[in-house]
Amino acid sequence: MTSILYEQSTDDINLQTATPHYASVIFSNISSDQAYRELVKVGGYHVPQECRPRHKVAILVPFSSAFHTFFGGVSSMTKKQFVRVNGYSNLYWGWGGEDTDMFWRIRGAGFPMVRYQKDIAKYLSLPHNKIEECKNRNELVRTAIARYSYDGLTTLQYKVISLKFLHLYTHILVDVDPVSNKTSK
């Protein structure tokens, strides 16, 4: 779904940065002053002239910290970086693995990933209903680097059912399996 949102937003606005944000995660202690100092300090992790894919979740409560290969919750990449990693995989159906797959795509494309320090970016995972797990997620994660060049934005297939531009957000309803739905009717 994130790749669909990216593709739709590039059609409608001059998008420069993709910032996927899980609806079930909210920040609990990020300080804008701290974040600004981290972004612009000389030799810092994210100097504006040298933007790198950034995972913004250093700690995810109730967990003690984000694991090393986790790139979910809240993250950001430039438009060029998102295109170079070919967006998110289209093979994850169900919960789990797509954010770790993105970590390996970023590595495979040669980008160093950076993360805020733990005292800057603490997020809270809100209670939410879990969906069924992606049954083959472990195998997909193991093959992420090998697949990223041909699985993602370049193989994205969907049909926009409705597109509504509202005051604070845009509501996009899509059919993610238009080929199967056409043959079954």
TrEMBL record:
Coiled coil residues, start to end: none
A Pfam family that the UniProt record links to this protein: Glyco_transf_7C
Entry keyword set: Transferase
GO MF annotation, one: galactosyltransferase activity
GO cellular component: Golgi apparatus
GO terms under biological process: carbohydrate metabolic process
Domain Galactosyltransferase C-terminal residue range list: 63-128
Protein name, per record: Galactosyltransferase C-terminal domain-containing protein
Organism: Diatraea saccharalis (sugarcane borer)
